[in-house]
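Thread title: Can someone regenerate the structure for this chain?

I was given the following input by a collaborator and told the matching structure tokens would be attached. They weren't. Posting the sequence so someone can regenerate them.
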Amino acid sequence: MNIVVCISSVPDTTSKINFTENNTKFDSSGIQFVINPNDEFGLTKAMILKEANGGTVKVITVGDASTEPVIRKTLAIGADSAVRINKTATDSYTTALEIANYLKENPADLIIAGKESLDYNGGAVPAIIAEMLNLPFVNACNGLEIAGTEAKVSREIDGGKENLSARLPLVIGGQKGLVEESALRIPNMRGIMQARAKSLEVIEASTLEGFTTTISFEKPAEKGDCKLIDCDDVSELVNLLHNEAKVI
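Best answer:
Regenerated them for you:
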């Protein structure tokens, strides 16, 4: 089984975020970049499926050379090879277009992407890839089993879980729950050494033009002061929630 995992390089969630050029560009100086968490669940699931069914796992990303340390980490975790499409990924449509163009020439049985990246939170890339390849797509996937060319998939829906079946090839948008957090893999020394010999192919993007332009970034408002009240004074609590917090 040929599995492709789409990977995003995103800032560590503990990073302090700043912007430059009048809040129009993200300031990457001093930022630690990591594998997008939703993608990491997908990569681990791909490794488990490979071990159970045989085949290969290839990771693919759209990004410049600064993303290569993160890609090398995926190889150290156990991916067999990697492809980096040389383009800064800031636009969902063109990011998906580059990946879809590659997959048209290099088909896969299963394409796993995170349901969204934790930087831009667009949540559009896997769906656009599926549409461009004319493949079935399951989003918010938190369960996946493969038997031959049949897939059993579960996903979150409002108020519960939906169980589906599909035939490969298939695109899924994975998330937490696709594997247990305890199953996530940490590169060991052997994996790091092996990663140096694995293929990391760099190909040029078909277009550098994006379809969206960032006007500005804005940080969330600072949290206000916390007000403590007497737990026995229910009327005061209701008054504050109604007239000050305005949540009821």
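The helical segments are 37-53, 68-77, 92-105, 125-133, 189-195, 234-244.
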